[in-house]
Structures are given as C-alpha cells and as structure tokens.
Amino acid sequence: MNCAKAIKKIEKHLGIKVEIDDHGRCWFQYEDKICSFFPNGSNDVNKGDITCMRIRRAGDEDDPYTDYCAGYFVENVTQMIHACKPPEPKYKPGQLVRGKSTKRAQRWRFAGKVGLVTNTGSGQAIVLWNGEKPNRSWISERDLELVSG
Question: Domain segments of the chain: what residues?
Fold first, then answer.
C-alpha cells in the first residue's frame, strides 16, 4: 500500500495526526501504543510503499547492546489499526445466537444449537447453550449466527 494512502487510512480510523520527520520516518501514538513505519525506497511518503510497521508500548526502549527490539512488527495497516483500536464485537452480551453448520461447529457439537452470548472480545464469544451446563469456552464469531437481538 502506498504510504500516503496508509497515512490517510490511519488518520481516518484512529482520528489522530501521523508525524513525519525529515527522513520520511512516520510515527504516531495512540493511547499507550507507539506505531512507526517507513516509505520503502524513498524519503518521500508520496512515492514509497509502506514497510517496517512496528508497534510498541510507550515506555519500551530498544537495547542495541543485546539486540533487543521492543514491540512487534505487523504485516499490513489494518493489523496496525486493530492493534491500537480493536473492532467492535459482532455479537453483544445478551443476544440469542445459533451455531452455524460448519465443520468446526460440528466437531465441537454446537452446530444448530441455540444459546445466549454472555461475554465477547477479539472476534470471539462465550455462549451459554440452551439445556447444557455452563462452560467458559471461547467460540469464534464466524461460527455463530444471530437468532434475535
């Protein structure tokens, strides 16, 4: 992705300003995370593609003597945005859902069953299935469908 387009996407989704220095290095801070990236092969953000997308906490520092690089690298801009601001859950607690007829749902034996969402987070949900003992297993939102909300 072009670096200029990536900057526009980040500013749109997070509502912050991306800082750019004289050498083309781009960075921003969102809450307690610092994200940085570079345009590949150029100091001009309008010419190069985005590369070296790195996320670290505000207090983390690199240590050149031990070859320690604080934080982690991501593959694309969407992963960087979701690391800073996770997407909203598909199902909210209290909604009635049904298990889809997928291979995973059949293997875990909740395909076709109806249950109540009790907790959500990061693309997963805990469901209290009708007629079964409560368990604390996280289920992917992709394996559920809304019955009533």
Answer: 3-84, 96-148
